[in-house]
């Protein structure tokens, strides 16, 4: 069986992305990115299928860590061009456009990285900050999040 090593456009289109500046465990400011699959629209979008897609995405990025493990650098690259930001996947022609506030973009540019969080459960695209916080709390308690660091790309 051939395993796809780049995300297809269907997977990228099914993702929701949220960004925010926050504080790391060491007290330093860090930019955060949450990627979660949108709620399923077809009978093929079961919770099991969504989880499998998100785990596959984590593998494409080089493997991400669970909450109590050492957080690795991913093979994904952050590209910022003016106010716009993209997360590029290894070998993929397209990147995922990220919502980016100027404070978040500055933090990425200054630090050269962002904490990347992949949620294994679906989340509605319209989730606001309160809903995202509740999602993160619930998913963290259930060990349903994967973590890595995406670094800025030296070439755009």
Describe this structure in words.
The protein is of the alpha/beta class. It has four helices and seven strands, in the order H-E-E-H-E-E-E-H-E-H-E. The protein has helices at residues 9-13, 47-60, 102-111, 129-141; strands spanning 15-23, 29-37, 73-81, 84-88, 95-98, 113-119, 145-152. Strands 1-2-6-7-3-4-5 form a seven-stranded mixed beta sheet. A hairpin with a 2-residue loop joins strand 3 (73-81) and strand 4 (84-88).
Output the keywords:
single chain; 156 residues; alpha/beta; globular
Task: Give a brief description.
By secondary structure, the chain is α/β, with parallel strands linked by helices. 27% of the residues lie in helices and 33% in strands.
| Tally of helical runs | 4
Mean pLDDT: 88
Largest sheet: 7 strands, mixed
Tell me roughly what share of residues is in helical segments. 25-40%
* Separation of the first and last Cα atoms: 33 Å
Cα Rg: 15 Å
Structural class assignment: alpha/beta
What is the N-to-C order of secondary-structure elements (H for helix, E for strand)?
HEEHEEEHEHE
Name the poorly predicted regions. none
What general outline do the C-alpha atoms trace? globular
Placed side by side, the strands forming the largest sheet appear as 1-2-6-7-3-4-5
**Beta-strand residue fraction:** 25-35%
- How many DSSP-defined strands? 7
Blueprint of the fold:
Blueprint: H1 9-13, E1 15-23, E2 29-37, H2 47-60, E3 73-81, E4 84-88, E5 95-98, H3 102-111, E6 113-119, H4 129-141, E7 145-152
Parallel strand pairs: 2-6, 3-7
Antiparallel strand pairs: 1-2, 3-4, 4-5, 6-7
């Amino acid at each position: 069986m051939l395993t796809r090593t780049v995300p297809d456009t269907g997977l990228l289109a099914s993702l929701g992305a949220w960004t925010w500046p926050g504080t790391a465990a060491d007290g330093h400011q860090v930019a955060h990115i949450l990627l979660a699959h949108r709620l399923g629209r077809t009978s093929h979008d079961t919770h099991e299928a969504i989880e499998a897609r998100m785990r596959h995405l984590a593998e494409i990025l080089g493997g991400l860590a669970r909450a109590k493990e050492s957080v690795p650098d991913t093979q994904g690259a952050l590209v910022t061009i003016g106010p716009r930001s993209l997360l590029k996947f290894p070998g993929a022609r397209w990147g995922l456009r990220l919502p980016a506030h100027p404070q978040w973009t500055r933090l990425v540019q200054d630090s050269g990285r962002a904490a990347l969080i992949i949620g294994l459960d679906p989340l509605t695209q319209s989730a606001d900050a309160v809903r995202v916080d509740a999602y993160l709390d619930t998913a963290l308690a259930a060990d349903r999040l994967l973590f890595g660091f995406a670094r800025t790309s030296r070439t755009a």
